[in-house]
C-alpha cells in the first residue's frame, strides 16, 4: 500500500481545479500550471526511484481487498511513462507561452492540459479495466476541449469528426468490457489475467482480444482505423498538436501493449500474428502518407502512424528483447515527436506557411533552428547514437529472434522512408533558394518558442547517449511486460 | 415578441421550490436508496432551467448570481478533498469514514464522508449542466 | 429474458448506426446517444440479468443481482451525459459558425478550401 504513486495523477488534477478560478489572469494561470507540473515531476521521479528500489507499488482505492476494489498499479512501465508525460508537458506548456495566444490562455487552455495529464497518467497507472475506460474519458473530454479551443472554422469542422470517432470507440470499449466481464466475472486487470490463464483462453476470449484491439487501435491509429488522425490533428494550434501527437496515440499503444502482454497471451499464433500484420501494414500506410504530402504538419503526423506501427511490431514479437525495444522506442517517440512538432511550429511561424514548396533557404537566416531540426530528424530515424537507435535496434533484434525475417526487413526499410521524409523537410525548407518569410517575426517570441524546443532536443540526445545508464529501468519494464506473474503477484499480495 | 405568460411565471416560482426540495430529498436519499448527487444535481438544474424558460436568462442571472465554473471547481475540490483526506491518515486514497450520531431532532443518524463526496458531485453536475445551457442560450 | 435483451441491444445499435450515417449533425448526436444506451443495456445483460431482484445483500436475501454492472452503467451514463452535452454545444457552435449542419458539406482540409 502506497498512496505516493497516486500523486502524479492527483496533483495535476488538483491544479486543474485551481486553474478553473481566475480565468482572465494569465500570469496566475501560467505560474500555477508550471508549479503544478514541477511538483508532479518531482513526485514522479520519486516514484520511479521507489519502484526501482522496492519493485511495483500498488494501492487499492477505498481500502477494499485487491480483486474487488480499484487497484492502482505503479510498475516501471507506468512510472517511467508518467515521468515522460509530465516532462514533455512541461516543455510544451513553456513553448505555448510564446505561441498559443491570449484568447486561448484565458479560456481553459491550462486546465485542459492539466486534465489531459490527469487522464493520461491515470490510464498508465490504473489496474482496473473499467477504470481505464474512465481515465480514457477524462483525457478525451479534455482533448475535445483543447481541439476546439479557439473556435476557428477548421477546428470546429474537424473536432466534430474527432469527437464522433472517439464516442463510437468509447461505446465499443464499454461493449468489450461487458463481454470480458461476462466471461471472467472480474474487472481487476491482475485478476483477469489469472482467470484467463485458468480457463486457458478459449475462442471467445480471442474474439474479445480482437475487439479490444479494435477499440484501442482506434485511439492508437493503427492501419484501418487511422483515417481520422491526419485531418483531426492538423486543426488545432501547434502546442496542442504536440501534446496530442506525443501523448494521446501513445496511450492507445500502451493500452494495447498492456492487454496483449497481460491478458491475451495464450493464443499467440492468432492474436499476436494479427497484431504483427496490422503493425506492418500501419508502417507501410504511414510511409505512403509521409511521402505523399507537401505539408510539414502532415508529414510529421504520418510519422506518428509509422512510429505506432514500429512499437506495436515490437509488442507483437512477444519476447523480452523486442518488448524492451518497444518500450524504449515508445519513450523515445514521445520525446522526439513533441520536439519535432515544436520545431515545425517554429518553421511555420518564421515562414508563415506550412507548405514545403513555398519554403527555402532558412539555413541562412536561422542556422541553429536548421541544425537542431537535423538532429531531431536523425533522432527520429534512429541514427546512432541518437535516441531512436537503441529502441529500433532491440525491436529489429527481437524480430529476428522471433523468426519474422521478412516483416522485420520491412520495419528496417521503413527507417529509410522516415529518413527521406524528414530530409525532404530539411532540404526544401532549409536549403535552396530563399523562400517565403513571414514579415512580423518578433525576436522575443521566437526565442520563447526556440529555447524549450532546443532543451527538449538536447534531452532526446541524452536519452540516446544515456541508453546504457537507463538500461536497468528499461529491462525492469520489459520483465514486467514479459512475465504477467510479476504484475499479478504485486496486485494480489500488495493488498495484504 | 412579448407574450403574456403570467400564469407560467407564477407557477414557475412555486414549482421551482418544490423541485428544488425534491432534489434535496433525492440527494439525501441517495445514501441507502436510489438517488444521490448526480440525480439531485440534474433535478436542481432542471428547476433552474424552468425558471429560465419562464423568465429569461438575464433575469435568472440577477436572481441567482452564481459563477457556475467556480461552482464546478469547488465541487471538484470538495470531492477530491474527501477522497484525499484518508491519504493524510495513512489509509488508501478514497477510504471513507462513517459513524452513528444522536442528533437533536433526527435521532440516531449515520454520518458518512461519502455524503461530502456526493455534495461535490452535486455541485459539479449543477455547474456543468448550467454552464452548457447558458453557453447555448447566451447568443440569441 | 437475455434473448429479448439481445434483440433490444441489437436494435439500438442498428438504429444508432443508421442515425450516425445520416447527414444531419443532430441526428448523428441522437445516434451516439442511442449507441451508448445500447452499450449500457449490454453491460446490464452481461452481468447476469435478473429482472427485479435488488443488488443488495442483506439478511434473508438469497437471490440478488450483481451490483457491479449497475455501478458500471451509472458511471458510463454520467460520462455519456457529459460527452453528449459537450457535443451538443459544439454542434450549435459549428452550426452558427459554419452555417450548416450537413456533414457532407463539412469535409475537406485546409488546401481545398
From TrEMBL, chain A:
Its main location: membrane. It comes from the Bacteria. The keyword Membrane applies. InterPro entries: CPA3_Na-H_Antiporter_D (IPR050586), NADH_UbQ_OxRdtase (IPR003918), ND/Mrp_TM (IPR001750). Residues 128-416 form the NADH:quinone oxidoreductase/Mrp antiporter transmembrane domain. Keywords: Antiport, Cell membrane, Membrane, Transmembrane, Transmembrane helix, Transport. GO terms for cellular component: plasma membrane. GO terms for biological process: ATP synthesis coupled electron transport. It is found in: Cell membrane; Membrane. Pfam families: Proton_antipo_M (PF00361). The chain crosses the membrane at residues 6-22, 34-53, 73-95, 107-124, 130-150, 162-184, 204-228, 240-262, 274-292, 299-317, 329-350, 371-396, 408-429, 449-466. PANTHER family: NA(+)_H(+) ANTIPORTER SUBUNIT D1, NADH DEHYDROGENASE. Belongs to the CPA3 antiporters (TC 2.A.63) subunit D family. This is Multisubunit sodium/proton antiporter MrpD subunit. It comes from Ureibacillus chungkukjangi.
UniProtKB/TrEMBL annotation, chain B:
Pfam families: MnhB. It is a multi-pass membrane protein. One of its GO terms (cellular component) is plasma membrane. InterPro entries: CPA3_antiporter_subunitB (IPR050622), MnhB (IPR007182). It is found in: Cell membrane. Keywords: Cell membrane, Membrane, Transmembrane, Transmembrane helix. Its main location: membrane. Residues 7-131 form the Na+/H+ antiporter MnhB subunit-related protein domain. The chain crosses the membrane at residues 12-32, 38-57, 69-90, 110-133. Coiled coil: none annotated. PANTHER family: NA(+)/H(+) ANTIPORTER SUBUNIT B, NA(+)_H(+) ANTIPORTER SUBUNIT B. Belongs to the CPA3 antiporters (TC 2.A.63) subunit B family. NCBIfam families: PRK12573.1. This is Multisubunit sodium/proton antiporter MrpB subunit.
From TrEMBL, chain C:
It is found in: Cell membrane. Keywords: Cell membrane, Membrane, Transmembrane, Transmembrane helix. The keyword Membrane applies. It is a multi-pass membrane protein. The chain crosses the membrane at residues 5-21, 28-49, 69-95. It comes from the Bacteria. GO terms for cellular component: plasma membrane. Its main location: membrane. Belongs to the CPA3 antiporters (TC 2.A.63) subunit C family. This is Multisubunit sodium/proton antiporter MrpC subunit. It comes from Ureibacillus chungkukjangi.
